[in-house]
Amino acid sequence: MNAEQLYEKLLENLRKRVQAGSFELAGLAMGGAWIAERLAHDLRLPHFGIINVAFHRDDYAEKGMTALRTASTMTTHLPFDVSGANVILIDDVLLTGRTVRAALNELFDFGRPAQVELMVLADRGNRELPVTANFVGEQVQVPENQILVLEKDTAGKFSFQLEEREQ
Predict the structure, then answer these.
(1) What's the CA angle centered on 57, arms 54 and 58, to 5 degrees?
(2) Residue 111, Cβ density class (10 Å: 0-12 exposed, 13-18 middle, ≥19 buried)
(3) Quick check: 60 and 39 in contact, CB under 8 A?
(4) Average pLDDT over residues 40-52
(5) 8 A C-beta contact, residue 99 and residue 113
(6) 72-127 pLDDT, tens per residue?
(7) Mapped to the 3 state alphabet, what secondary structure does the chain carry?
(8) How much is the pLDDT for 64?
(9) Cβ 90 vs Cβ 116: under 8 Å
(10) What's this model's pTM, rounded to 2 decimal places?
(11) CA geometry: angle 140, 143, 148, nearest 5 deg
(12) In this structure, which of 1, 4, 42, 99 has its CB flanked by the most CB atoms within 10 Å?
């Protein structure tokens, strides 16, 4: 799958959405934040938000210092009033839904949005929670022992890499 083509598909969906009304973008650190930043630039939006889910993850105890390192590199920053906003939450890959749950918890720490929609480049299925994306670049099949990792090159272009899952 071509991450750049999937990005263009999501960008086109949001171009139509800009005409329909206002919304705020909030990307999940790291991959979702990269996508949100580029979407905001390409759509000429004044800002975008970043959500760090490290402290709301249900596997925080298992991840330990790994989660803390992630938290320290990219903190939650929402340059808009969350209360009453229409928020499009952006992530790179949707799998179990647990990261989205954590992102919603973090988002609601800042206020109560009017609506939250989810946008992802790739949807792997295998949900553990009842979470569905409103905007999906592509449904993908990846072996369970592998993870799909979004990469960004120095020019800001996206690609996916398959990596072996840590046991």
Answers:
(1) 155
(2) middle
(3) no
(4) 96
(5) no
(6) 567 899 999 999 999 999 999 999 999 999 999 999 999 999 999 999 999 999 99
(7) CCHHHHHHHHHHHHHHHHHHCCCEEEEECCHHHHHHHHHHHHCCCCCCEEECCHHHCCCHHHHCHHHHHHHHHCCCECCCCCCCCEEEEEEEEECCCHHHHHHHHHHHCCCCCCEEEEEEEEECCCCCCCCCCCEEEEECCCCCCEEEEEEECCCCCEEEEEEECCC
(8) 46
(9) no
(10) 0.90
(11) 60
(12) 99
Residue with tokens 């596997």: 59
β-strands 115-123, 86-94: how paired?
Answer: parallel
Helix axes 31-42 and 3-20, enclosed angle (nearest 10): 50
How many residues can be counted in the chain?
Answer: 167
Alpha carbon distance 24, 79 (integer Å): 9
